[in-house]
C-alpha cells in the first residue's frame, strides 16, 4: 500500500509540474499573441493615419511627405533626441502641419504608435 501511495503522489506531483509548465507556456503564448495583435493594430493605424506623410517605411520620401515636410522617423539622430512622451504628445496634440489624433485614437493606441515609431530607427 505504501509503495502504491508513493507512486500516486509522485504521479500527481509530476502532473502538477507539467500542468504548471503548460499553464505558464499558455500564458506566454497569449502574451505573445496579444503583443502581436497590438503590433498589428499599430501597423494598421500607422498605415491608415500616418503613412500618407511619413511613408509606410517611416522615411517620409513620398511627394506628399516632402511637400508637407514630414519627419523622417528612421533618423537615428531624431530618435535619440526625442522622448517617448514628446512623440506621444505630437501624435495626440499634433505638431506643425500634423493633425491631432487625441479624439480619433485611444491612449493605448497612441502608446502603441509610439512603440511602432521607435521600431523605425535605423
Give a short synopsis of this structure:
With 122 residues, this protein is mostly helical.
Descriptive overview:
- By secondary structure, this protein is mainly alpha-helical.
- The protein has a domain at 35-46 and 73-122: Orthogonal Bundle (Cytochrome Bc1 Complex, Chain D, domain 2), CATH 1.10.760.
- It has helices at residues 2-49, 51-54, 63-68, 76-81, 84-93, 107-118.
Question: What is the topological layout?
Answer:
Elements: H1 2-49, H2 51-54, H3 63-68, H4 76-81, H5 84-93, H6 107-118
Helix pairs in contact: 1-6, 5-6
CATH class of one domain: Mainly Alpha
> How many strand elements?
0
How are helices and strands ordered from N to C?
HHHHHH
Q: Which blocks of ≥5 consecutive residues have pLDDT under 50?
A: 7-32
CATH architecture of one domain: Orthogonal Bundle
Considering the chains and any ligands shown, give keywords for the structure.
122 residues, mainly alpha, Cytochrome Bc1 Complex, Chain D, domain 2, 6 helices, 70% helix, globular
Amino acid at each position: 500500500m505504501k509503495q502504491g501511495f508513493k507512486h500516486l503522489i509522485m504521479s500527481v506531483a509530476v502532473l502538477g509540474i507539467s500542468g504548471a509548465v503548460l499553464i505558464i507556456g499558455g500564458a506566454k503564448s497569449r502574451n505573445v499573441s496579444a503583443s502581436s495583435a497590438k503590433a498589428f493594430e499599430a501597423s494598421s493605424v500607422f498605415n491608415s493615419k500616418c503613412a500618407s506623410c511619413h511613408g509606410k517605411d517611416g522615411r517620409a520620401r513620398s511627394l506628399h511627405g516632402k511637400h508637407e515636410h514630414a519627419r523622417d522617423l528612421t533618423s537615428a539622430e531624431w530618435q535619440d533626441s526625442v522622448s517617448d512622451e514628446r512623440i506621444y504628445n505630437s501624435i495626440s496634440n499634433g505638431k506643425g502641419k500634423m493633425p491631432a489624433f487625441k479624439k480619433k485614437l485611444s491612449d493605448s493606441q497612441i502608446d502603441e504608435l509610439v512603440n511602432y515609431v521607435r521600431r523605425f530607427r535605423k
